[in-house]
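Example for tutorial group B:
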């Protein structure tokens, strides 16, 4: 009994430590547009249900638009002429309150139903990183719950709202900082990798970000076969939330009987068929599932 009690306490402590290491991300949710004339405030309810769907995913804290706006209500620039708040203002306010994402849902009436079009915006860059849409009658709570779950499922790329995320969030994403500082050889290898594995350009929430590193210049030496040049390279795979890192090394070689330039060109020619691609692709396909 004592062993079981000790085990449960240890398990709870580990869970608490893990939770602290993986902070939840704040998302501001805003819904606007058309709604049934006989059902006023339907979009406010939809907004709340979208927030619930984000929270149920387990990685997010929803910051309501009311929270953000009411905290800044004394500032005249918040309001447009119609008394509403536009997306740019919400993004700016979201930055002030530490939100990472803005989710907007636009509603428009199509015949007897409503089209809901959603966007997920990275507040830091103001870039739309995923979109989703669905139809909904906006008549009852079950409609709103189903619609909000479908919207968040599409935005996060998950199989079901609150489930394990798929494409967005747990897919493969380029490490933007490393890509910006990459040398020509690393960029060339990245082009080849894009042809072999699907890697997204957006912001990674809880998936895997990747980078390719390589020597700035080939190292060349003379030998019995002539001049041999070599470039060391590596695929760096890191969890988007956390410090877990995997490094897969590789090397490219080329040779020529008398010319260093020709040997370097051989290195470039062999890049697409290098031996390390199979191991790299296998690792990334496993991570991207």
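The residue assignment follows.
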């Amino acid at each position: 009994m004592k062993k079981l009690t000790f085990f449960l306490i240890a398990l709870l402590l580990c869970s608490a430590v893990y939770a602290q290491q993986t902070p939840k991300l704040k998302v501001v949710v805003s819904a606007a547009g058309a709604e049934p004339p006989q059902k006023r405030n339907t979009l406010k309810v939809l907004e709340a249900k979208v927030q619930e769907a984000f929270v149920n995913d387990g990685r997010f804290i929803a910051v309501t638009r009311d929270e953000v706006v009411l905290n800044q209500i004394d500032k005249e620039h918040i309001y447009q002429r119609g008394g509403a708040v536009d997306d740019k203002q919400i993004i700016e306010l979201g930055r002030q309150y530490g939100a990472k994402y803005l989710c907007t849902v636009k509603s428009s009436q199509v015949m007897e139903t409503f089209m809901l079009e959603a966007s997920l915006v990275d507040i830091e860059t103001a870039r739309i990183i995923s979109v989703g849409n669905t139809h909904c009658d906006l008549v009852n709570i079950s409609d709103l719950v189903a619609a909000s779950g479908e919207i968040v499922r599409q935005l996060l790329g998950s199989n079901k709202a609150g489930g394990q995320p798929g494409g967005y969030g747990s897919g493969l994403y380029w490490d933007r900082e490393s890509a910006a500082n990459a040398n020509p050889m690393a960029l060339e290898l990245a082009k080849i990798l894009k042809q072999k594995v699907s890697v997204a350009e957006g912001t990674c929430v809880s998936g895997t970000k990747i980078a390719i590193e390589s020597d700035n210049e080939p190292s060349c030496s003379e030998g019995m076969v002539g001049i041999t040049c070599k470039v060391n390279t590596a695929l760096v795979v890191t969890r988007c939330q956390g410090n877990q890192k995997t490094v897969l090394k590789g090397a490219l070689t080329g040779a020529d009987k008398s010319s260093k330039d020709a040997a370097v060109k051989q290195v470039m020619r062999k890049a697409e068929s290098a031996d390390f691609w199979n191991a790299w692709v296998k690792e990334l396909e496993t991570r991207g599932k």
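The domain at 24-165 is CATH 3.40.50.10070 (Rossmann fold). Compare this with the pattern of hydrophobic and polar residues in the output above.
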